[in-house]
Amino acid sequence: MTDRVMSSGYMQWAKTHLQAQFNLASSGLEPYPLAKLPVKIEDLELTGPSFYGYEPLQKALAKKCGVSSDCVVAAAGTAMANHLAMAATLKHGDEVLIEQPAYELLASTAQYLGADVRRFVRSFDNGFRLDPDEIARQTSTRTRLIVLTNLHNPSSALVQNETLKQVGEIARRVGALVLVDEVYLDALFEDAPATAFHLGEEFITTNSLTKVYGLSGLRCGWILAEPSLAKKMWYLNDLFGVIPAHAAERLSCIALENLDEIAAHARRLFETNKHLLNAFFKSRDDLDWTPHKFGTVSFPRLKKGNVDSLCTLLAEKYETSIVPGKFFDMPQHFRIGIGCETATLTEGLARLGKALIAINGRRYSKSSGSGD
Ligand SMILES: Cc1ncc(COP(=O)(O)O)c(C=O)c1O
User: Fold this and answer.
1) Closest atom of ligand 1 to CA, residue 102
2) Best probe residue, ligand 1, of 153, 206, 252 (max atoms within 8 Å of C-beta)
3) Is residue 347 included in any domain, yes or no?
4) Which of 158, 176, 197, 369 can pair with 205 through a Cys bridge, CB separation 3.0 to 4.6 Å?
5) Given ligand 1 and candidates 103, 215, 327, 335, which is best to mutate, with the most ligand atoms within 8 Å of its CB?
6) Banded pLDDT at 2 (limits 50, 70, 90)
């Protein structure tokens, strides 16, 4: 038997390498400051009536998602939401089918739980599109859970409802469930489809206010599941987190009341930054890329040269961070996040351009970068 996975290599890297001056590695929006939330000290309390949920927060999340409160399980971020969702649906030895490339914690959490992890491929040449035929090919009668992200991390590709329904069909045929991590879906703002939870009883979804709204510190995450499964998750959470920090629950309610304003700020920033990223891509012939349409991250491929060397040079000489593709098992790619301040992105991309020139030893840029 292989050793049980007891840690996440990606999280260890992220917690120690993300904090460059020009941070293009983060997949979320720059932090939304507490000072911009209309909070009075009387709105807060340290301890309160939070048992299997804090009722005002349960109601606010249920309203946002268009579901009844008994389908909502609050969790410490989407990370814990995914953990709870998997822990409640997988037994040791169960087969779980996870997209490839994927956010590393999805696979390591399933492995920690003793699941037999299988992968289905989303290919770069196909725009990282979700291909139901590929999922059907990789599904077996032992498959208990199919796991995907929408929008996709690392590419931001969107999965349409029609495709999700086909995945639900495949899952139903073998008695499996589908877990859709929707932490990036709100980056479509008013164009965002409703949560996949509404597509059928096979679907469990997870989300949080972390990435799109810059509210990571609240750890306001949630799972949507049918009520009996939701109850199982609440009881399981007694073994993990017991109860959340009540002040964070109160602040989350205030954030949800003001979400339109927070979203407007986020939308403006992502829109501006998207154009900068696409202009950068167009200026280069050392990268394979697809135009960035929406979402917080992009996943180009380096045509020639070593991505780890690029990341090291970029960090050490240019104080800029990106995520090496090896954490997504695609070592020729890297992930760029565009949720930082526009000035940071502008300078970070300029520095990335210089590092790209330096590692390839010649000037690849079509623009007139100085190439030091
Ligand atoms: C797909 C995906 N799910 C979950 C998370 C964790 O989100 P949270 O900060 O809400 O726990 C991340 C973080 O990068 C992610 O990319």
Assistant:
1) 1
2) 153
3) yes
4) 197
5) 103
6) low
Its pTM stands at 0.96
In ligand 1, the atom with minimum distance to the C-alpha of 221 is 10
User: What lines the ligand 1 site, CB under 6 Å?
Assistant: 27, 77-79, 103, 149, 153, 181, 183, 208, 210, 216, 221
**Same structural domain, 297 and 198:** no
Q: How confident is the model at residue 362 (pLDDT cuts 50, 70, 90)?
A: low
Distance from Cα 78 to the centre of ligand 1, integer Å? 5
* Domain final residue, candidates 257, 288, 313: 257
Are 186 and 141 within one domain? Answer: yes
Grade residue 6 by pLDDT with cuts at 50, 70 and 90. confident
Nearest CA to ligand 1 atom 7: 78
pLDDT at 222: 98
Band (pLDDT 50/70/90 cuts) for residue 36 is very high
Tell me the CA–centroid distance for residue 366 and ligand 1, in Å.
35
69 CA distance to ligand 1 centroid (A)?
A: 23
Q: Are residues 53 and 192 part of one domain?
A: yes
Q: Is pLDDT at 366 greater than 60 in this prediction? A: no
On whether both 99 and 234 belong to a single domain, the answer is: yes
Ligand 1 atom nearest the C-alpha of 184 is: 1
Distance 93 CA to ligand 1 centre (A): 25
Per-residue three-class SS string for the chain: CCCCCCCCHHHHHHHHHCCCCEECCCCCCCCCCHHHCCCCHHHCCCCCCEECEEHHHHHHHHHHHCCCHHHEEEEEHHHHHHHHHHHHHCCCCCEEEEEECCCHHHHHHHHHCCCEEEEEECCHHHCCCCCHHHHHHHCCCCEEEEEEECCCCCCCCCCCHHHHHHHHHHHHHHCCEEEEECCCHHHHHHHCCCCHHHHCCCEEEEEECHHHHCCHHHCEEEEECCHHHHHHHHHHHHHHCCCCCHHHHHHHHHHHHCHHHHHHHHHHHHHHHHHHHHHHHHCECCEECCCCCCCCEECCEECCCCHHHHHHHHHHHHCEECEEHHHHCCCCEEEEECCCCHHHHHHHHHHHHHHHHHHHCCCCECCCCCCC
User: In the listed set 234, 257, 280, which residue is the last one of a domain according to the structure?
Assistant: 257
